[in-house]
Amino acid sequence: MAGPPVIIWEHAVKRLLHYRELVPRLEAALGKFSSRDSAEVIQPVRSTVPLQKHNGFLGLMPTYMENAGVLCTKFVCFYKREDSSALPAVQATVVLLDPEYGNVKAVMDGEVITGMRTAAVSAISAKLLMRPDAEVLAILGSGKQALSHYNVFTEMFSFKEVRVWSHTRQRAESFCQSVSGPVTVCASVEEAVRGADAIVTVTRCTEPVLFGQWVKPGAHVAAVGACRPDWRELDDVLMKEAVVYADSREGAMAESGDVVLSGAEVFAELGDVINGTKPAHREKTTVFKSLGMGVEDAVSAELVFDQWKAEASQP
Q1: Residue 37 and residue 185: Cα distance in Å, rounded?
Q2: Measuring CA to CA, which residue among 313, 314, 145, 155 is closest to residue 225?
Q3: What pLDDT digit, counting tens, does each position of 156-178 carry?
């Protein structure tokens, strides 16, 4: 008979999860997802339940990886918050199950997993699509996702300058104090992105904040916010001029306002590039539209669980 599930709190997830192990696992998972082999990954598009009273949604993100023996789902609540709100914009819990017996093996805090796997996949998009001589990184936003993106981008790449913009200068300056390296605070989005080689958008915006006329030809944009079909971060000019990649084509066409409302074509999934079935257009302006996928949570949670078991088995 199976024992009770393991509970892994946020502080333990932080201790157990590291980009050096996570990034290669995510890269392999993206390739498996795009192969559309049901023995590798079964993952429906995220289903959502509106939380009208609270201006939010509950998202359910189940994934089954038959060959790997991984069954997982994430419960994530995300909200359209006012800039002045002290309430979290996202809260998540990840549940890992035994696919044979059906029992819950582990319940773990999903905040660190969501932040790290999202940022890691953005960094994978940059690894595949950003010009190798990139020198300037611009981050639009100053919350948890901005911090996780800063951490993995500066760990994986050598930028000469990092810029940040936020809705308030106070938040941008707080962000600068929370990171380990030098960051330039910019007064406007245009100032932050002019001449930038890589741009990360991790905002709460529901209307376009990044305009194509400001973006350097050949820049790479990792667009992470605006996860609803009527929310935007990027304008039509940028979406139509860039080569657009996504984590999931179906997810982008169902959930991304930047894709749906601009009418832009999704050229390829990141997994297609990893599998060698679609090219990486490094010489062109590229947009990676990130929606987040259950398979990313599944491999992240399995890694945390494996690390927890290894730690627990030590005398």
Answers
A1: 45
A2: 145
A3: 999 999 999 999 999 999 999 99
